[in-house]
Design brief:
This protein has two domains: 98 residues, K homology (KH) domain (GMP Synthetase, Chain A, domain 3, 2-Layer Sandwich), CATH 3.30.300.20; 101 residues, Ribosomal protein S3, C-terminal domain (Ribosomal protein S3 C-terminal domain, 2-Layer Sandwich). The chain contains seven helices and eight strands, in the order αβαββααβααββββα. Strands 1-2-3-4 form a four-stranded mixed β-sheet. A four-stranded antiparallel β-sheet has the order 6-5-8-7, with helices on one face. Strand 2 and strand 3 form a beta hairpin. Helix 5 runs antiparallel to helix 6. The radius of gyration is 20 Å and the shape is globular.
């Protein structure tokens, strides 16, 4: 199961939250779902090299967009001018009121998407892929990741026959649902074809219910 299912979707409601939070009837669901995809595509195409890891969308009276990024300054701009311009462009494009929030990624070296983005950029700049991956693995383990796995596939180093290589550091338990595993897929565009980059990052076990029960008992004892 762990090898066939996207680790993010596999753990929804357990260690990960839904990236889109809204409810719609049968008639409007398809339209809003498509709009979510277009909003995310619009933002990522508009703001490149900003270390965007995830975009969360919540719909109430207006569309609230939360951008998780390792470089918030690029998106916010001088005195918030860039973020205000982005909000106006979204409203113009999708004809609905928007609210844009920026969430900074405190430790980008252990974020799966940021790691993948770094490797992708280095491959596109013709750095040897083994060196790029090993540097990323080393950085992630030093930053506190308990396990990192990277799979690179395609015409590696411009070889005639495509192949895949797997690099692993530490432990990545894909079958354990309470394991906090981040997953990202990216594509590096090179002159000899597209190179696929898959990244898994294991950040430890999550025991939410146990922690909640312990905090509840402590607060009741204190009172």
């Amino acid at each position: 199961m762990g090898h066939k299912v996207n680790p993010n979707g596999f753990r929804l409601g357990i260690t990960t939250e839904w990236p889109s939070k809204w409810f719609a009837g049968r008639k409007k669901y398809g339209q809003l779902f498509r709009e979510d995809i277009l909003i995310k595509r619009f933002i990522t195409n508009r703001i490149k090299d900003a270390g965007i890891s995830r975009i969360d969308i919540e719909r109430t009276k207006k569309v609230s967009v939360a951008i998780h990024t390792s470089k918030p300054g690029i998106i916010i701009g001088k005195q918030g001018a860039a973020i205000e311009e982005l909000r106006k462009d979204l409203e113009r494009e999708f004809q609905t009121p928007f609210e844009v929030n920026i969430r900074e990624i405190r430790n980008p070296d252990v974020d799966a998407y940021v790691i993948g983005e770094t490797i992708k950029g280095q491959i596109e700049r013709r750095m040897p892929y083994r060196r790029a991956v090993k540097m990323a693995l080393e950085k992630a383990t030093q930053a506190g990741a308990l396990g990192v796995k990277v799979r690179i596939s395609g015409r590696l180093n411009g070889a005639e026959i495509a192949r895949a290589e797997l690099f692993k550091e530490g432990n990545v338990p894909l079958h354990t649902l309470r394991a906090n595993v981040q997953f990202a897929v990216l594509h590096a565009k090179t002159s000899y074809g597209t190179i696929g980059v898959k990244v898994w990052v294991y950040l430890g076990m999550v025991f939410k219910k146990v922690q909640e029960a312990q905090s509840a008992s402590l607060s009741s004892n204190a009172s």
